[in-house]
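Input record (Table S2, row 248):
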Amino acid sequence: SGGLWVVATPIGNLGDFAPRAAETLRSVDLVLAEDTRHSRPLLLQFGIETPMQALHDHNEATQAAKLVERMLAGASMALISDAGTPLISDPGFRLVQAARAAGVPVRPVPGPSALVAALSVAGIASDRFCFEGFLPSKAGARREAIARLAAEPRTLVFYESAHRVVESLADLRDGLGGARKMVLARELTKRFETVLDGTIGEVRERVMADADQQRGEFVLVVEGVQDLAAAQLAEGRRLYEKLAGHLP
Ligand code: SAM
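Output record (S-adenosylmethionine complex):
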């Protein structure tokens, strides 16, 4: 009978593709993929011949209702994204919302997500955390977003791309203080997997010193504020020193 499966796929290592994920993609009528060209090799590798259709940020709003109608009529579908878990900084929210509203069963086939993979190896408090997805791409908005998080006691988790990791590390250092602990998890489960830990200042310096560390995909895990009063005092001092430099 009709329904929607939300299926996680590997974040780099094909060995992480779960047997139930493959079985689900094989058994449904249609695989909805963020990018069919990207996902075709994965399906081929596992001998999955299910037809695919693209569902991405640009067509999801118009496609969701039609797809839900087909599921109500009995079609079974599986949603996948380019990597990891759909809806986690990936398309699918509108479709899942519409399916649920229409009473279509929505079931998960859980698996990899860079967010959880990074947190699981970071050694930074993981009992409570704020997942912030990608920081804004514009510098002003990014700094504002970081400033709003400066007093957050929970661990902060960000996704970042190679284009902006250097800028984001500088803005995190300026907005949260260079002494805060962080982990930079790069290319998890892939050939060049690297997990750097230290203070924000230290991690930034190691990334700046080695262009190879600026390549690939990143998760930034940053410790929440430990002592808010001390952090505010340090921030006051930092601002004072910055201002003092401009005084006669
Ligand atoms: N849905 C995916 C998930 O569950 O992890 C995330 C999709 S988001 C568009 C892509 C971002 O996830 C990358 O820019 C990076 O921040 C993070 N990411 C994905 N794969 C990664 C990996 N192997 N190592 C580190 N970060 C990764």
